[in-house]
UniProtKB/TrEMBL annotation:
Residues 121-223 form the Metalloprotease TldD/E central domain. It holds the Pfam family PmbA_TldD_3rd. GO terms for cellular component: cytosol. One of its GO terms (biological process) is proteolysis. This is Protein PmbA. The lineage of its organism: Bacteria, Pseudomonadati, Pseudomonadota, Alphaproteobacteria, Hyphomicrobiales. The gene is pmbA. Transmembrane segments: none annotated. Residues 29-91 form the Metalloprotease TldD/E N-terminal domain. GO terms for molecular function: metallopeptidase activity. Belongs to the peptidase U62 family. Residues 234-447 form the Metalloprotease TldD/E C-terminal domain.
């Protein structure tokens, strides 16, 4: 992959856009270029099914006239002056937004660290093809695997170039490589599907494709001949790390300042109060070297720092961008991200910090319960906290995984679930949202 050698060119174009917007009548402006390069290969049953390659540099200009704001986007090759004049004309007739603004100059990053987010390793289509085939071959070699849903390998880069009318100019790039495979076990109506994958910033740190394939095969074979279990209340449910990460995402959504400002979060009135069991903490750190979601500055040019969002169970922070912070009477904490032409708050490297016991010890401590490996549906109400999801996994009997289970529903309220959560010690921080295996007591399980 090409490196950051032409970021200076993109910064120059962004700065020109801002100058033209100011000349056209804007009081303030910022310009962003989101850069993306990717290539991927997909295979199925030993044959290449698809090869894709894409490149894009997407420009966005945001202008402010008093309390009015407008944004426009364009692809490379556009007329700079025409784009600037169009944005200013739109802003003049836009409704006032009392909170929209650039980040305060005092909050802008004056310098920022090299987080080592970019790996310049060149991956050819042939390398990607061989990796995908190796993953699929290893998965199909596992006894009991009967078919393949396909395997893939990819490599790419992405980054941000940002310039503002009050003096910020910066850029960063990050790389991403991945291997994945999905396979089937069983026949007819008894077929089961499962998968495995790995994704890293540095190519050399990826798991071996054959190992990914073996894990996928072993996972799916264990799911053959699932049973149903009786409906029950006060069931202890253990979340596999895969589904645990999604659950932590619900916590992130509930402490997002935008949701709090819109009054769509069930935690909107809980700042400074206990929302997790005592002893539990959730951290967010944008400055981890080689972190999967690290960034030296946010989408407004503000550097973030490590925050303990929930400390010893007590809610300490919202995720905030500048405008969301103003709406809540607070300062940004450097969590603004660009989504098209808009800026909204989001997490970076988010982690539910681990506990002290192993997953095996946690399972043994349960006695009888349900170990979830996959969740189905979107039955989560972030306004009330009501939680109801279809689930598959394994029944726990006498402290051990006894047999596969499917076609059940688990339900509770997130407020109660947060207070009954017990984490294990097996966190894997290679994901932007990281979580260990954890148990939640007192859930309702709807089965037979």
């Amino acid at each position: 992959m090409s490196s950051e050698i032409d970021s200076s060119t993109l910064l120059s174009r962004a700065s020109q856009l801002i100058d033209l917007a100011r000349k056209a009548g804007a009081d303030a402006a910022d310009a962003v270029v989101v850069r993306s390069r990717s290539q991927s290969v997909s295979v199925r049953l030993g044959k290449v099914e698809g090869t894709e390659s894409s490149e894009s540099d997407d420009f966005s200009l945001r202008v402010f006239i008093g309390k009015r704001v407008a944004s426009v986007s364009a692809n490379p090759g556009f007329d700079l002056q025409a784009l600037a004049e169009r944005a200013v004309a739109m802003a003049k007739v836009s409704p006032e937004d009392p909170f929209a603004c650039l980040a305060d100059e005092a909050n802008l990053a004056k310098s920022y660290p090299d987080l080592q987010l970019f790996d310049a390793t060149e991956v050819s289509s042939e390398m990607l093809r061989e990796a995908a085939l190796a993953a699929e071959t290893a998965a199909l070699a596992v006894k009991g695997v009967t078919n393949s849903s396909g395997a893939g390998a990819s490599g790419g880069m992405g980054g941000l170039v940002l310039a503002t009318s009050h003096g910020f100019a910066g850029s960063y790039m990050g790389s991403r490589f991945g291997h994945s495979v999905s396979v089937i076990a069983g026949e007819g109506t008894g077929m089961e599907r499962d998968y495995d994958f790995d994704s890293r910033l540095y190519y050399a740190e990826l798991d071996d494709p054959a190992e990914i394939g073996r894990r996928a095969g072993q996972r799916v074979v264990k799911r053959i001949n699932p049973r149903q279990v009786p409906t029950g209340k006060n069931v202890t449910v253990i979340f596999d790390p895969r589904v645990a990460r999604g659950f932590v995402g619900h916590i992130a959504g509930a402490i997002n300042g935008a949701a709090v400002a819109r009054k769509t979060s069930f935690l909107r009135d809980r700042m400074g109060q206990q929302v997790l069991k005592s002893g539990l903490s959730i951290t967010d750190d944008p400055l981890i070297v080689r972190g999967p979601a690290s960034r030296p500055f946010d989408g407004e040019g503000v550097s973030g720092e490590r925050l303990v969002m929930i400390e010893d169970g007590v809610l300490k922070h919202w995720f905030l961008s500048t405008s969301t912070g103003r709406e809540l009477g607070l300062q940004t904490n450097g969590r603004g991200v660009r989504g098209g032409t808009a800026v909204s708050p989001s997490s970076t490297n988010l982690a539910l910090e681990p506990g002290d016991i192993s997953p095996e010890e946690l399972i043994r401590s349960v006695g009888n319960g349900f170990y979830v490996t996959e969740l189905i549906g979107h039955g989560v109400n972030m306004l009330t906290g009501e939680y109801s999801r279809g689930a598959t996994g394994f029944w726990i009997e006498n402290g051990e995984l006894a047999f596969p289970v499917s076609e059940v529903t688990i339900a509770s309220n997130l407020k109660d679930m947060f207070m009954r959560l017990t984490p294990a010690n097996d966190i894997d921080r290679k994901f932007g949202v990281a979580a260990p295996t954890f148990a939640i007591e007192g859930m309702t399980l709807a089965g037979q």
